[in-house]
Amino acid sequence: LAEESADSAYHSHGSSLEEEAAERMDDEEQERLLSYWQSVGRGHQVDVPRDMAEPIQQLTRNNSPQERQSIPFTLIQRKEKLGDLLYEKRQYGKAKWACIKMKEKQYEQSICLGFMKLMRYICEQNSSGLYLGITIPIVTIVHTDEAQSAMTPAVTVAYYLPEVLQDEPPHPFDSDIIIEEWPATIVYSRSFRGITNEDSIMREINLLAAILESPELCLRDTFIIAGYTNPAAANRHNEIWFLQRP
């Protein structure tokens, strides 16, 4: 009996030590990830608060390619030249998105702060209390003047709700996040890499406008930046979307 109770005490003590070690590693991972995001944030003139540690960790753990759900679309046309893809024409169906309007001094500040708010919503800060899952791309609606020569500061950062949540989206705790239903839309999409700021976005808008055969079919002052990698990544995969007029 004494041996059994000693054995049981050993195992119980061993398992509690394992739990403590796992918790310590968990805390260390949170600190490391938070520190990394804070250093990236400083580069964009954005403060990343301590309460972002847990959402950042959740998102990082669930950010493998097989965990991410791509927004469904129908490919209508691929335009190529000498083997290079110039753009794709796609149709996206009617769908619900979690949206937040931002108006910081710089575009990078707006998307970083907007994305952090959406991360909290995705990572359990919603009426279901559940982790909602990553969908890609995260999109940002940007506006320019009619001449397409300059961007306005107001942007909307938006997260496509996963298929299983489309009928009944969880309610955000953050009152700045609004659930919107977007109509079916035809877009002209062109891929580009790197950081997204006012200069790179205007360059991509002008480039796609020059390539399209009939740019007049699209809205002249509203565009979408689709981001396939998080704002902390250096060499991001992005797309510029022109929206066909309804």
UniProtKB/TrEMBL annotation:
Residues 1-29 are annotated as: Disordered. Pfam families: SOUL. InterPro entries: Reg_factor_effector_dom_sf (IPR011256), SOUL_heme-bd (IPR006917). GO terms for molecular function: heme binding. Residues 17-29 have a biased composition (Acidic residues). It comes from the Eukaryota. Belongs to the HEBP family. This is HEBP2 protein. It comes from Orthonyx spaldingii (Chowchilla).
